[in-house]
Each structure stands twice: as structure tokens, then as C-alpha cells.
Design a protein that fits this description.
Elements: H1 3-26, H2 32-56
Helix pairs in contact: 1-2
Length: about 60
């Protein structure tokens, strides 16, 4: 799997978790621990996406 494809898959999973959080928040009976776990997973994905994107950005050249 190419880096771009992996990044796209992570972004898709991030969006899916975002929708799950929105749905959970819309139902007052949802357990707070479940929402916290979803948010934690979303943050981990966000961090991984940021690391991959940083790897795609060329380092600045020093003169």
C-alpha cells in the first residue's frame, strides 16, 4: 500500500469515528466512557495522519 493510499485510509477511518461520535452525542443514553474512547481513537488517528503528512513534506534546505 502506498503512503498516499494509507493516508487516505486513515482519513476515512477518522471521518467514520467523527460520525460515530456525533451519533453517540445525539443519544443521551450513550455511555460517557464510550464517547471518551471514540475521541481517544480519533485523536490517535489524527496524530498518525499528521506524522505521515510531515513525512511527505520535504525538509527545508539550509544554505
Amino acid at each position: 500500500m502506498s503512503l498516499q493510499a494509507h493516508l487516505a485510509e486513515l482519513e476515512k477511518r477518522h471521518q467514520t469515528i467523527e460520525r460515530e461520535i456525533e451519533n453517540a452525542l445525539a443519544h443521551p443514553s450513550t455511555d460517557d466512557l464510550q464517547i471518551a474512547e471514540l475521541k481517544r481513537r480519533k485523536l490517535l488517528l489524527k496524530d498518525e495522519i499528521a506524522k505521515l503528512r510531515d513525512g511527505l513534506t520535504p525538509a527545508p534546505t539550509l544554505h
